Amino acid sequence: MPLETPGTTVGVVGGGQLGRMLGEAATPLGIDLVVSDPTPDAPAAPAVRDQVVGDFDDEATIRELGERADVLTYEIELADPDALERVSEATGTPVHPAPETLRTIQDKLVQKRRLQEAGVPVPDFQQVDSAEDLRAALEELGYPAMLKAREGGYDGRGNVPVESPEEVDEAFAAIDGPAMVEAFVDFERELAVMGCLGDGERDTFPVTETIHEAEILRETVSPARTTPEVRERAREVVRDVLDVMDGRGVFGVELFEADGEILLNEIAPRPHNSGHWTIEGCHTSQFEQHLRAVTGLPLGTTERRAPTVSKNILGDVPDGERWRARLDGVESVLARDRAALHWYGKREVYRLRKMGHVTLVGDGETVGGAADGTVGESAGEALLEEVRDATEPLTFVE
Fold first, then answer.
1. How far is the CA of 87 from the CAs of 5, 66, 291, 339, 392, in angstroms?
2. Overall domain count for the chain
3. Domain that holds residue 136
4. Is 163 found in the same domain as 238?
5. pLDDT, tens digit, for every residue of 110-129?
6. Is residue 386 part of a domain?
């Protein structure tokens, strides 16, 4: 791809924080981004060439993107795969990852069935279409279990734990639509791997430990505080997942580690929160890698620079309230060596909304000079303690 100005244009369905960070990664590559988003002046707008205002699944909006772009991609699963396919056929603009991949992943039940058929280890699961179905399924799977909306869930939304038979009716009513139920996994830790599919290339980023609370990702630690054998098994599972995916791009793969074994949790066909640490922590970020992949450029190295942790900045305002986004205490982060603050540019904050993140990269003195995953748990714990201390003063103010 010869470099010129203007350069290759990538159309992105979605203009949230992922679109914003894709825009930041695109500029050094000579790539221009045009995003679509229903919110005028979306978070990605300052970092991209242009924004088309329209719903994620609106075919006319996607058509405009397709007419302006050399390749289409998406940063949110609410994109319509049928519309993407029709626009691609009409404009000749390729879509990566392929619309068929998006179809598979959008429906969690279809996703699990397809991966199970491919031999990917998954928790026991069943389709449930009513509270009676759920009650019958739980007689086999046992309590507790996780009830999941088949479509549309994110950041813990659409996931309802069911602890006892008395909670069945309320749990199913909370989902309010097609659902599936998964057996509870008594995991030791949650892991994530960003998988990469390029033009004839395949790779994985280092295995990351993910720390959740109330189904929302709070922190990541890389390398994951587990054994080298478990890390290698996690990458093996992700390589098997990639074999099922169609098209090019980066895929966020969430995993459970249980009794030394790896089970698939969920997949995102795009850059993912669990890979934000790669911006400072790797020689190639997940966002640069996604752009390299969808445009057919050679993939970059996935090598980690040093052990790295990240912490999400979540809205801490009272439940049910919405405030103008004003974050106080940022000096505590900026005063730290090797700490990086990422602000997503959202204008409104509400409880637990992801507003930004902070990354902290270790140095040789802090982590014993090891970046290859051979460091002990104390390295990750020391970095976690430091990033928690740095972000503790952060708070939103009216």
1. 26, 7, 20, 42, 47
2. 3
3. 124-183
4. no
5. 999 999 999 999 999 999 99
6. yes
